């Protein structure tokens, strides 16, 4: 009769190395199958299996429950696979891109998400982990193995030493508890943000201008050029939110598309076919929803955040938004725009000077170029108001309907 795992482990620790061969014969196919499922490569799976067996042999004295040698070995396999996957994710040789050609002027930073996306993901990640920590240990283990490590129900059951049905029950109960916990947590956060925003006395502003980068001394560069060859403008756009009762401004950097859309609204122009924001405004009208006001409420890690107050069936709802989207919709629906007072202090020394010059804007742009947050400029450029540039009369432009 075959000896059980505990007896074989005991014999190995007593010096019988042949007994470990029995353990290898018993669990090697299962360990290799698990590694293959996680890595998707038979050669990598073979390497991981060999390394796991070696670690198991060297660390056998640390096994507290000899009768669970199989689960312990599979746990070692999982950890080694995760390490291999992490290395593969963090490093890709440049000569493997584009069929073996190394792209020019390309850095790993170009693949990184924006600071805004990173902040939001980290914040949500912390909330979810905190909710998982409130679960019982068996449910925590099942959630982490299934949703974080990507293991199948069968693999989890094998590692935990329980039937697949028990794993399903644990995941079902964990999801129910997480749903309740996350709903409560996110609701509390929304209420806190709502109270914070309501307690801040906002300053009403107007959209004063849209600044863009144009070739210095070139009076032929066109805003919204009719021909591609005349498109000499840079990628940067800055919308200027000016307080109604002073000369302080909050400059917000936006993409070329968003900046041009705001500039068109300032000029009373729209496209012959409905654009994204015109469609959104029409949908609000059809649904009998009204934007009461919008506000730029916070600046975190060089990223501005905005809130929209939307009235639906007599009740006000707060909606998070990018400042560019909030400002565009406010112009399209004629809603008031506000800025939190502290943002004017953080925006110093941005004040209107003679003409369209803005103190501090050129220095900010130089820093952005050095940090490679915007593409480099080939020619000598300067800040210009979109109104100072010529514009062709296009067939696809028409006055905004009042």
Low-pLDDT parts are: 90-112
Give the distance, in angstroms, between the N- and C-terminal Cα atoms: 90 Å
Backbone shape:
elongated
Biggest sheet features: 8 strands, mixed
What is the mean predicted local confidence, pLDDT?
77
The run of helices and strands is HHHHHHHHEEEHEHEEEHEHHEE
Structural class: alpha+beta
Summarize the structure in words:
With 402 residues, this protein is an alpha+beta fold. It has helices spanning 5-13, 17-39, 42-58, 69-90, 115-132, 137-148, 153-160, 164-199, 256-266, 276-286, 323-333, 341-346, 361-370, and strands at residues 203-215, 237-243, 249-254, 269-271, 289-300, 303-312, 315-321, 336-339, 381-385, 397-399. The strands form two sheets. Strands 1, 2, 3, 5, 6, 7, 8 and 9 form an eight-stranded mixed sheet that branches. A two-stranded antiparallel ribbon has the order 4-10. It is elongated. The model is unreliable at 90-112 (pLDDT under 50).
Summarize it.
This protein has 13 helices and ten strands. Strands 1, 2, 3, 5, 6, 7, 8 and 9 form an eight-stranded mixed beta sheet that branches. The protein has a two-stranded antiparallel ribbon with strand order 4-10.
């Amino acid at each position: 009769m075959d000896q059980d795992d505990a007896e074989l482990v005991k014999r190995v620790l007593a010096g019988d190395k042949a007994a470990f061969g029995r353990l290898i014969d018993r669990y090697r196919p299962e360990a290799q199958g698990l590694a293959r499922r996680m890595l998707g490569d038979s050669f990598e799976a073979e390497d991981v299996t060999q390394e796991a067996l070696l670690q198991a042999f060297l660390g056998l004295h640390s096994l507290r429950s000899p009768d669970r040698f199989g689960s312990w070995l599979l746990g070692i396999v999982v950890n080694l696979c995760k390490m291999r996957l992490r290395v593969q994710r963090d490093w890709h040789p440049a000569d493997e891109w584009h069929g073996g050609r190394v792209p020019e002027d390309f850095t790993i930073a170009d693949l990184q998400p924006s600071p805004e996306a990173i902040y939001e993901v980290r914040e949500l990640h912390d909330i979810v982990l905190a909710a998982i920590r409130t679960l019982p240990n068996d449910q925590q283990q099942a959630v982490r193995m299934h949703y974080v490590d990507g293991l199948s129900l069968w693999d989890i059951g094998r590692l935990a030493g329980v039937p697949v049905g028990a794993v399903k029950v644990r995941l079902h109960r964990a999801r129910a508890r997480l749903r309740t916990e996350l709903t409560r947590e996110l609701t509390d956060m929304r209420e806190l943000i709502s109270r914070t925003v309501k307690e801040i006395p906002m300053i009403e502003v107007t959209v004063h201008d849209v600044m863009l980068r144009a070739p210095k001394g070139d009076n032929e560069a066109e805003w919204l050029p009719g021909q591609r060859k005349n498109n000499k403008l840079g990628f940067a756009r800055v919308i200027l939110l000016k307080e109604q009762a002073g000369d302080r401004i909050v400059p917000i950097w936006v993409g070329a598309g968003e900046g041009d859309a705001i500039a068109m609204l300032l000029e009373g122009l729209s496209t012959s076919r409905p654009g994204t924001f015109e469609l959104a405004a029409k949908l609000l009208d059809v649904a009998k929803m009204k934007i009461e006001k919008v506000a730029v409420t916070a600046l975190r890690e060089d990223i501005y955040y905005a809130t929209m107050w939307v009235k639906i069936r007599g009740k006000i709802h707060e909606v998070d938004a990018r400042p560019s989207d909030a400002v565009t919709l406010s112009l399209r629906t004629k809603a008031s725009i506000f800025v939190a007072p502290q943002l004017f202090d953080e925006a110093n020394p941005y004040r209107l000077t003679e003409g369209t010059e803005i103190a501090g804007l050129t220095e900010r742009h130089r820093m952005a170029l050095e940090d490679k947050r915007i593409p480099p400029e080939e020619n000598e450029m300067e800040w210009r108001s979109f109104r100072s540039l010529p514009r062709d009369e296009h067939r696809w432009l028409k006055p905004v309907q009042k």
